[in-house]
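It is worth pausing here to work through a concrete case rather than discussing structure prediction in the abstract. The textbook approach is simple: state the sequence, then state the predicted structure, then interpret. We follow exactly that order.
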Amino acid sequence: MKIRNLLPSLKFGSRVQGEAARHARRAYRGSFSFSNTVFAVTIVFLFLPLLVLVIYSFNASTSMNWTGFSLRWYQRLIESRELWRALRNSLIIAVTSAATATVLGTLGAIGVSWYRFKMRGYVQTISFLPMILPEIIIGVSLSIFFAGIGIPLGLFTIYIAHTTFNLPFVFLMVMARLDEFDFSIIEAAHDLGATERQTLFKVTLPICMPGIMSGLLTAVTLSLEDFVITFFVAGPGSSTLPIFIYSAITRRGGITPLISALSVVMILGTVILSITLRKFLKFIAAK
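Step two, the predicted structure:
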């Protein structure tokens, strides 16, 4: 009797296994679908130029004809004082402008979320204008503004310009975090006797820290890669890394192995930084 009772369950199990095998065969047959083909072509289209760039950074010749393996361009990259000066300027501008934009954007987002005032809607709308307007318009308008008030172009004007266009990104990311905020925590902190300042530094900011860090890192990235706005507000001796690359290309009439070597170093640095920051943000979000 027990064996007879087991027969239906065995048949059901074999039927389930058969269905699973048929689904697996269908999935294998559909692995070469049109969407997967388009995805593969897109990946090749995006990453093949980077592969060519990496290969020709080790070319001994300045032309596109391969003449042999060489590390001479990486050696010249290390010895280039102009490059290191431009990199130093980029890092200074990126860190200072991102930090300023993060502080102002975080406080602005908290103020707009906490308080109700007449111009609240206008403040939110105006804060997004630097994200909507084309960069060339922002660059030209800032250049005219600095010339009108008599501020000479240099690192300080680049710092102001980068802070201006980084501010809306930080504001938006912190606002997105505050939209998920449970304001009953604020009420509980006030009921327990916390002042508004204590609530800000011990409750609100720690909860908003993932959004704040995301805004800070986005601001640093945008500042490091910006060329259009920086081109209009940079003065003599204040070129950043993108301007240095553009000047090197225009002087030599095209991409040289030196620029290729610089691009490879920047790609490796970006990959390492992205992996590190991803783990760091996961650590902050888990706390």
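Step three, interpretation. The chain has two domains: 11-56, 75-286. The CA atoms of residues 220 and 261 lie 23 Å apart.
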